[in-house]
Amino acid sequence: MSDAATAYQGPQRIYSGMQPSGDLHLGNYLGALINWVKLQEEWECVFCAVDLHAITVPQDPKKLASQTREITAAWLAAGVDPDKSIVYAQSSVPAHSELAWILNCTARMGWVERMTQFKDKAGKDSERASVGLFTYPVLQAADILAFKGTHVPVGEDQKQHLELSRDIADRFNRDFDAENFFPQPEPLIQGPGARVMSLKDGTKKMSKSDPSELSRINFIDDADVIAKKIKKAKSDADALPSEVEGLEGRPEARNLVGIYGALAEKTNAEVLAEFGGEGFGKFKPALAELAVEKLSPITQKMRSYMDDPAQIDAVLKKGAEKANAISEPIIKEVREIVGFWNT
Ligand code: TRP
């Protein structure tokens, strides 16, 4: 830990967010949710469905609220416990928008211009991207800092945004002579399933925006579909190696072994000790069986939550109350620090 982080005296608090963009897949589950479920046993955790981030690109207003319910249902089905953790929708807590504006005035153009995710998402025609998409990572900093989050479980792809959050926190503290007011949030890079790759290309991350449905396993896929997708997953002609080194240069084999290991809570070495020497003809059915066994209870639970939107709304409402109770006093202090009238 850096000096700045150790000098911060407040409570340790985990903060993370996920976009309510529909189509949750195995990558979200193994890369993030499994980890959230474990973390909540030992830490105070705050998990946010980031609908303000979602509208940085066009969304269908008729669907947004149900996507927020859907992602909440997935979290609950995976084991996030709303009695242990705070679970809420970003737009129901005004602190996010308010702090984002203030931090937009702390963050420097040059810092935000360096963010590679904006370049990827905006594509060639960045002139047409929303200003919100540009300043997306500042809103992300505001999410974490409105709760004085100290640790943030994220995937590799969010490391740069988290660095920016640290810079913004540090700059705010210095600019306003508010030593250690905001913590500098630390990344917790997620466990063995952190990088689940496409089933069609072991060098590309599993993603909901991949045009091929066969590239990913969705939360709502039923057992037959899961089995079919694994059967059709790209592999190679060789048998599985007995040692991890043998996965070198075989991205698809590595991915499938990694998925098996993450689902079975085993290391790649343990998986290979079991399957080394076997071909994919044998390994894939074993993987399909395991995936169905682990995922179908979650799918079923998620469906039953979705059939009872009132229950999800009650969870989100209670979460918003708890989230406001934490963030309001922090924002009040921010207003005083910045020097606004009527603080
Ligand atoms: N940008 C994150 C992602 O795409 C989601 C996110 C929004 C987030 N706010 C956050 C993650 C705060 C961690 C903390 O994955």
Summarize the structure.
By secondary structure, this protein is mainly alpha-helical.
CATH topology description of the largest domain = Rossmann fold
The helical percent reads 40-55%
Our measurement of the CA-to-CA distance between the termini, rounded to an integer number of angstroms, reads 34 Å
**CATH level-4 homologous superfamily of the largest domain:** HUPs
- CATH architecture designation of the largest domain: 3-Layer(aba) Sandwich
The overall strand count is 5
- Count of DSSP H/I helices: 14
Q: What gyration radius follows from the Cα positions, in whole Å?
A: 21 Å
Largest sheet: 3 strands, parallel
Overall morphology:
globular
- Helix and strand sequence: HEHEHHEHHHHEHEHHHHH
Molecules bound to protein: tryptophan
Helix/strand class = mainly alpha
Instruction: Name the strands of the widest sheet in spatial order.
Output: 1-2-3
CATH class of the largest domain: Alpha Beta
Strand content: 5-15%
Could you say how many structural domains there are in total? 2
Low-confidence stretches: none
| Mean pLDDT score | 94
